[in-house]
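FAQ

Q: What does a record look like?
A: Structure on top, sequence underneath. For example:
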């Protein structure tokens, strides 16, 4: 990086904290209506400045989400309707677009891991669908939150793995091939497993129609992914512009979904934030912890344990938010997924950064040398 670009990112960092200082005065002392724009400016400048630092670059997207969410909290009217059109109607098409993008990057090879490493895949998928739903149910039961908001903890727990888990596994020098396979398998199982678990665990909190939820997941996940796989099969290498564009489209879609859900549930989120945010954080962190130790319990290699930890702890918050919206409960049931998404990216980046620097050791104490080229090949 050149000195000039580094200087720009430093200036953006100063601009960020300058905006924060003015926000504190304008928002907390003067209580002005335009304070929300200053908070957005703080996060926007911070996100841009992070792009200039290798260790912080991975957090840039998450901080950008915070910028959008801050506007949604201060000015929810901008993110609920537009010229009479309900923006929540865009959530399902956006999820389908994200899943289509996932499909375009998948092939039959992604499922070959089931044959090559069946123990790791089975353990990862089973641990995911046992640990996170159980944690969600336990936290919802003791939370004291209104039942529909509490049920959101169960919903995010019953959802399949988050797409970001593959990126975090790559950064953590974990078993990326295993990560991709677990994500693919859990996502394809979601139409059957998620409604079943929601009926059992969340049925006492909210009314669950398993068949309706199954169809919702099928049309939001299976059909778009199938279309993406076919597209990849027929046009592999012939639509490079789409391969380059889809990650950006997916990130924008996720940010937009979280912003819409935040705006819809703004009052509920503000009133319950002091309880909901810590519970979501506990849910996420204990997912990493219990996922890692489930791998250790079954004597998996260190790289696989790291993979399972990340796969268990990171959820598909976008899909969970879309399901809440399909049920007409985006402002309550959708809040925990909307909070979970940005938080898991922060904690996942921190965990991946820690593991990236920590040597991987075999059972006999010898250090595993990770082939960076192998990781890069699986990443793409």
């Amino acid at each position: 990086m050149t000195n000039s670009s580094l200087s720009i990112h430093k200036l953006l960092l100063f601009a960020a904290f300058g905006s924060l200082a003015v926000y504190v005065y304008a928002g907390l002392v003067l209580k002005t209506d335009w304070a929300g724009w200053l908070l957005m400016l703080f996060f926007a400048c911070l996100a841009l400045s992070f792009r200039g630092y290798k260790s912080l670059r991975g957090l840039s997207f998450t901080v950008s989400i915070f910028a959008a969410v801050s506007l949604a909290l201060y000015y929810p009217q901008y993110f609920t309707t537009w010229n009479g059109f309900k923006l929540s109607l865009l959530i399902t098409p956006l999820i389908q677009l994200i899943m289509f993008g996932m499909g375009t990057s998948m092939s039959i090879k992604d499922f070959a891991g089931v044959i090559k490493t069946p123990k790791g895949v089975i353990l990862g998928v089973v641990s995911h669908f046992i640990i996170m739903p159980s944690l969600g149910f336990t936290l919802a039961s003791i939370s004291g939150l209104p039942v529909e908001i509490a049920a959101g903890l169960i919903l995010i727990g019953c959802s399949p793995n988050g797409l970001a888990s593959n990126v975090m596994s790559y950064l953590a020098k974990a078993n990326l091939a295993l990560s991709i396979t677990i994500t693919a398998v859990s996502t394809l199982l979601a139409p059957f497993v998620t409604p079943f678990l929601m009926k059992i665990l969340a049925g006492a909190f909210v009314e669950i129609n398993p068949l309706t939820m199954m169809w919702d997941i099928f049309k939001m996940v299976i059909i778009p992914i199938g279309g993406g796989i076919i597209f990849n099969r027929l046009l592999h290498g012939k639509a490079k512009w789409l391969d380059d564009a889809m990650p950006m489209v997916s990130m924008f879609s996720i940010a937009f979904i979280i912003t819409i859900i935040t705006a819809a549930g703004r009052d509920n989120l503000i009133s319950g934030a002091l309880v909901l945010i810590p519970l979501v954080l506990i849910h996420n962190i204990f997912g990493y912890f219990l996922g890692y130790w489930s791998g250790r319990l079954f004597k998996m290699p260190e790289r696989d344990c790291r993979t399972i930890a990340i796969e268990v702890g990171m959820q598909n918050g976008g899909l969970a938010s879309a399901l809440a919206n399909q049920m007409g409960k985006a402002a309550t049931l959708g809040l925990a997924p909307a909070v979970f998404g940005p938080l898991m990216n922060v904690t996942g980046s921190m965990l991946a950064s820690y593991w990236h620097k920590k040597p991987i050791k075999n059972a006999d104490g010898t250090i595993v040398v990770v082939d960076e080229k192998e990781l890069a090949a699986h990443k793409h």
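Q: Is there anything notable about this one?
A: The chain has a mean pLDDT of 87.
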